[in-house]
């Protein structure tokens, strides 16, 4: 499974970003991802997390451009690492299985990938694994998922990551400071939300300046192309 099919609007407009910030600022991180995708024409509640995040990156690329930066500390020396990445590259590489079977001793557990709905409903890691169970067998016979041993549930959590590898994106690079190989984990939904929020606040500032000077409404300002807004702001000395 790759990124979801293209929606009717595969980018976020100026109005959309302000709307997303308004409706998602007090929401949970998983809910924010759903808000952003719904405004691009997608209902992603039941999608695997990898498919959700790959689609978020695709819409991000259509809105802001393919290249983006990832930041984080080196796990060896603690110095900051900065990488320039391609959204389209990671979208193309995103894959997840429909279902998979975990064999743990006499236990056989069939699992499906985690969805955003599962994350929102789960109270802990074990309940998240249980939500993704399709079938359980013990020595070949059907068994109740509620009687699964803790070690099987722990193995189930690891198996879910294998089923949907794009649900947690890990990037390896060489640290410029110490020369050691370092790993950065990219939380796609948080990264995209942070960027949309930053752009929304910048747009709000533009609206205040142009409305104060010319008396235009928010809707009139946001309906302008970005280039036209930049022209007026430059004439005001705001750019």
Can you describe what's shown?
With 239 residues, the protein is of the alpha+beta class. Among the domains are: 14-70 and 186-213, no CATH class; 100-163, no CATH class. Helix content is 48%, strand content 18%. The strands form 3 sheets. It has a 4-stranded antiparallel β-sheet with strand order 3-4-5-6. A hairpin with a 2-residue loop joins strand 3 (100-104) and strand 4 (107-111). The longest helix has 27 residues, at 188-214. The radius of gyration is 22 Å and the shape is elongated. The protein starts with 13 loop residues before the first helix and ends with a helix. The mean pLDDT is 91.
What does this entry show, briefly?
The protein is an alpha+beta fold. Helix content is about 50%, strand content about 20%. Strand 7 and strand 8 form a beta hairpin.
């Amino acid at each position: 499974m790759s990124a979801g099919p293209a929606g009717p609007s595969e980018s976020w407009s100026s109005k959309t970003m302000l709307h997303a910030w308004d409706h998602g600022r007090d929401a949970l991180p998983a809910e924010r991802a759903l808000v952003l995708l719904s405004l691009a024409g997608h209902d992603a509640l039941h999608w695997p997390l990898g498919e959700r995040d790959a689609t978020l990156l695709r819409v991000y690329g259509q809105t802001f451009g393919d290249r983006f930066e990832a930041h984080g500390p080196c796990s060896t020396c603690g110095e900051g690492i900065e990488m320039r990445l391609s959204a389209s590259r990671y979208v193309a590489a995103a894959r997840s299985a429909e279902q998979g079977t975990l064999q743990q001793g006499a236990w056989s557990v069939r699992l499906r990938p985690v969805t955003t709905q599962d994350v929102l409903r789960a109270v802990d890691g074990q309940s998240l694994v249980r939500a993704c169970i399709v079938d359980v067998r013990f020595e070949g016979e059907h068994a109740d998922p509620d009687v699964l041993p803790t070690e099987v549930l722990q193995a189930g959590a690891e198996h879910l990551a294998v089923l949907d590898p794009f649900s947690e994106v890990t990037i390896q690079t060489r640290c410029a400071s110490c020369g050691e190989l370092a790993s950065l984990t990219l939380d796609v939904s948080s990264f995209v939300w942070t960027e949309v929020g930053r752009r929304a606040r910048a747009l709000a500032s533009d609206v205040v300046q142009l409305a104060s000077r010319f008396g235009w409404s928010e809707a009139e300002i946001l309906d302008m192309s970005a280039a036209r807004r930049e022209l007026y702001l430059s004439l005001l000395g705001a750019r």
